[in-house]
Amino acid sequence: xxxxxxxxxxxxxxxxxxxxxxxxxxxxxxxxxxxxxxxxxxxxxxxxxxxxxxxxxxxxxxxxxxxxxxxxxxxxxxxxxxxxxxxxxxxxxxxxxxxxxxxxxxxxxxxxxxxxxxxxxxxxxxxxxxxxxxxxxxxxxxxxxxxxxxxxxxxxxxxxxxxxxxxxxxxxxxxxxxxxxxxxxxxxxxxxxxxxxxxxxxxxxxxxxxxxxxxxxxxxxxxxxxxxxxxxxxxxxxxxxxxxxxxxxxxxxxxxxxxxxxxxxxxxxxxxxxxxxxxxxxxxxxxxxxxxxxxxxxxxxxxxxxxxxxxxxxxxxxxxxxxxxxxxxxxxxxxxxxxxx
Length: 341
Ligand SMILES: Nc1ncnc2c1ncn2[C@@H]1O[C@H](COP(=O)(O)OP(=O)(O)OP(=O)(O)O)[C@@H](O)[C@H]1O
What we know:
Layout: H1 3-7, E1 10-23, E2 26-42, E3 47-51, H2 58-65, E4 73-78, E5 81-82, H3 88-98, E6 99-102, H4 106-109, H5 116-126, H6 132-145, H7 162-174, E7 180-184, H8 192-209, E8 212-216, H9 220-226, E9 229-234, E10 237-243, H10 254-261, H11 300-304, E11 310-311, E12 317-318, H12 330-340
Parallel strand pairs: 3-8, 3-9, 6-7, 7-8
Antiparallel strand pairs: 1-2, 1-4, 4-5, 9-10, 10-12, 11-12
Helix pairs in contact: 5-6, 5-7, 7-8
This protein binds adenosine-5'-triphosphate.
Residues 19, 32, 34, 52, 54-60, 282 line the site of adenosine-5'-triphosphate.
């Protein structure tokens, strides 16, 4: 184990997740390549935002990072320890003390029949943390931490608002004091009016507890605001990782540029960079670069070879044979893309 690997809270190395495809509820012979060759490290206290179109593998990546999805191959390490080589009980302990997960919809993520007190106590009971009195005290602490009054403890999750329910879910994810929180679309099921409150709560908790966070969202502006580093995914692959402040202007991957150009106001384009055709199926990814069927820069090389990871400076990695050059504006990229159509 390298010193760097031990410092990282979580590390994925060459992780693949392949599912059996289903049709009409039955398994077929096809395979779904949900995650392909993912390499990613999460350092202490940093927030990594994950962006990409629907079905590109964001939730799979999140589930792998919290031990809910076993990789088909590759390694997932917490604090330098490969969690899938551990016994089941050691893995449960390692996961519980390392990471917590907040899902999109707190209405389905929480047990509706348990009072909030018990929802928050559950992880403490399962992991036999402290005495009963200490667990009760921790429940009170958690309510305060997520900004809920003690009076909600006896209510059921269905008796509080959606925003309060998501606060309970965040409290539950933090019960075992993990150092990494995985938030998968934590605000998309909430009313627009409470979204900012939940995002601010996550930022406060990060500050207060020194948490690292993986923040998955379709909302690119929010990812950029919340994150230190941005990871772009396309068809199960991580195609770019870079500092949040470098996107979109210094992003090298044409897909990152196209994705961010669809967000008005970032580089002030008139229209998004046009992409040709639909996202290919995750059961039949194209040869070579997965993005090449929609990319205006693609040539024969892109069809033949998956681009190797290229680095630029310490924090910037991308996989592209024909990266966007420095200083090229979205307006120029739009006209290049239009010429190819
Ligand atoms: N249990 C499963 N069985 C079969 N295919 C699956 C399973 N889970 C995910 N997939 C497929 O794997 C691919 C990646 O799914 P995933 O949910 O990770 O994408 P996503 O980027 O989070 O999508 P969204 O933004 O819509 O939530 C998709 O093609 C999805 O249909």
